[in-house]
What we know:
Helix content is 39%, strand content 16%. It is α/β, with parallel strands linked by helices. The chain has one domain: Alpha/Beta hydrolase fold, catalytic domain (Rossmann fold, 3-Layer(aba) Sandwich). Helix 2 crosses helix 3.
Amino acid sequence: MFGSSDFDVNKKDGFEYLHISSETSNKQNLIFLHGMFGGLSNYDPLLKRIQGYTIFVPKIPIYEIKARKISISRLTEWLRSFCETLDIKNPILLGNSMGGHLALDYAQKYADDVSALVLTGSSGLLEKDFGSTFPRRKDRDFIRKQANLTFYEDLIDDTVMDEIMTVVKSPSKLTKLLALTRDTHKYHMEKFLPKIDHEVLLVWGKQDEITPPEVAYMFEEKLANTQLHWIDKCGHAPMMEHPEKFAAILQDFLRQLETKSNSKTSQYL
């Protein structure tokens, strides 16, 4: 969720992001996209276990965009600008929760500029949330219980709770958060999924309460080229709860993509 990243934060032209460089210049670019209640630190456990790739983790400006303009489509255009500014070519997009929704929208709008997708607990079809009004937004115990729906185990410490409470008690931030929540429900991706023909890796927690297992099966059915992997005793953020297992699944998928790419290249030589 929140918290400071253990990696250096880069800034360029208004963008904030983590950048892990590969020593091999021809390695695939990856972009990791956090969820609505997420931040740069969400991917720290995974970044510490993935090597040999160039990885970008941008801070998605949920609270910087005006409430009346905040939407998945608006964030897609922001992501487009991010890629253009940093000259990121044909990335693999990995998205958790809302970040998965954003990755899907980007892929269907800029299909030729995406290599593959990795979705974990993605919204876009069916998802639960904290609610549409936060009627008990000053009740710390209630908010903590709701936030813990994200995980199989209790991973919400006092530092994270302090940051969450700062958001839900801020009228401005809460308004933007609720506006984006409403848009994720309204902007349903079902009709777009058959048009997405990229290779898609689905990594799902078996005990995900926010985008439950049925959602993973829906994505598997409606997307053309998918492989679905489950992680047991895991909730809505597998890359945080089980980074070792997630890393192993991801690296195997990346090796498959590299093998296919090399095979296609050899056909033309």
